[in-house]
Amino acid sequence: MTRLALYPGTFDPITYGHLDILERARHLFDAVEVTVAVNARKQTLFTIEERCALVEASVAHLDGVTVAPFEGLLVDRARARGAVALVRGLRQVSDFDYEFRMAFANRRLAPEIETVFFMTSEEHAFVAASIVREIHRWGGDVAPFVPPPVVDALRQRRPQ
C-alpha cells in the first residue's frame, strides 16, 4: 500500500522553502502530491496552469512527486486520492495559528486523514511567495529564493 500525502498550497510561486518541506515530506511518505489550489478569492501572479508547470519543473528531480490543480474542499481531494496525510509547512509562530485551526477543521471533516507539520529549515524561515512577488515587483533579484524555472518565468514577466 502506497502512503500518499497531499501538500496543498497556492504556490504563487513555488519557493525554496516549499521545496524544503516537500523534500522532507517525501522521505516520510511513499508519494506526495503537490495539490495546487485554485482560489478565486486570491489574485495570483501566475495562472493555475503556469503554477502547475512551474511546480512540475521545480520538482523534476524528485521521484514520487506529482502535481495536480484542485478547487474545492481539500479533504475531499485527499479522500478521492486515498491520501493518509496533509503536509503543511510552518515558518513562524504566526503561521501556527492559522494552520492549527485548519488542522482541527480538517480533522473534524476527515478524522482518518492526519495533518503533518514541518518546520521549515532556518535558511528559509523568512521566505514567502508574497515576499518573492514583492521583490520581483520592485526589480530585485529573486534567484536566492526560488528555483531556476521560477526565476526564468519572473524574468519573462518583467516589463522591458
**Secondary-structure arrangement, i.e. CATH architecture:** 3-Layer(aba) Sandwich
Shape: globular
Largest sheet: 5 strands, parallel
Runs with pLDDT <50, length 5+?
A: none
Provide the fold topology:
Elements: E1 4-9, H1 16-28, E2 31-37, H2 48-58, E3 65-70, H3 74-81, E4 85-90, H4 93-109, E5 114-119, H5 129-137, H6 148-157
Parallel strand pairs: 1-2, 1-4, 2-3, 4-5
Q: If you had to describe this structure to a student in words, what would you say it looks like?
A:
With 160 residues, the protein is an alpha/beta fold. The chain has a single domain (4-157), classed as Rossmann fold, CATH 3.40.50.620. Helix content is 42%, strand content 19%. The chain has 6 helices and 5 strands, in the order E-H-E-H-E-H-E-H-E-H-H. The protein has helices spanning 16-28, 48-58, 74-81, 93-109, 129-137, 148-157, and strands at residues 4-9, 31-37, 65-70, 85-90, 114-119. Strands 3-2-1-4-5 form a 5-stranded parallel sheet, sandwiched between helices. Helix 2 links the parallel strand 2 and strand 3. The chain is globular and about 45 Å long. It starts with a strand and ends with a helix. The mean pLDDT is 94.
Could you give a quick summary of the protein structure above?
By secondary structure, the chain is an alpha/beta fold. The chain has helices at 16-28, 48-58, 74-81, 93-109, 129-137, 148-157; strands spanning 4-9, 31-37, 65-70, 85-90, 114-119. The protein is globular.
What labels would you give this structure?
alpha/beta, 160 residues, 5 strands, 42% helix
